[in-house]
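Hey, I was hoping to borrow your eyes for a little while. There's a protein on my desk that I can't quite get my head around. The fold is given in discrete form, as structure tokens running alongside the sequence. I'd be grateful if you could look everything over and explain what you see. Here's the protein in full, and shout if anything looks odd to you:
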Amino acid sequence: MRHVFPSLARVVLAAEQSSNDHDFIMPGLQEDDATKEEKLKAALWYSIGQMIDSAALTQDLNATPHFIGGLSELVWVQVENAAQDLEAFAKHADRKTINTKDVVLLGRRNEGLKELLQDHAKTVQKQNSAGSK
């Protein structure tokens, strides 16, 4: 589970990096929202299932599909909450685009995550400034 949020942060930071203050548009946005949501939930379920299966094999444990489904729903709700918070932070700053500061602010209650996000944001910033020279 520990690796889910840093991956999410990398996606958001990469989106910001590639957007250069333009709106980041994911491929396939012409699909209706319900279909996109179902595909995302299915991908999340699959990814979580793979992580749990891997951990279960190494620790000689067994996880039921019901457990994987429950955990997937929990993660989905957390991602939805994070997305709403990120949108609110950007809106509060009178922006339409989520940026690095919003992502770091999202991690403010988790010191380890906050440090990880700040370090990654600094790395991305250094890469951007080195690439523009």
Notes: The chain has five helices and no strands. Confidence is low (pLDDT under 50) at residues 1-6, 18-25.
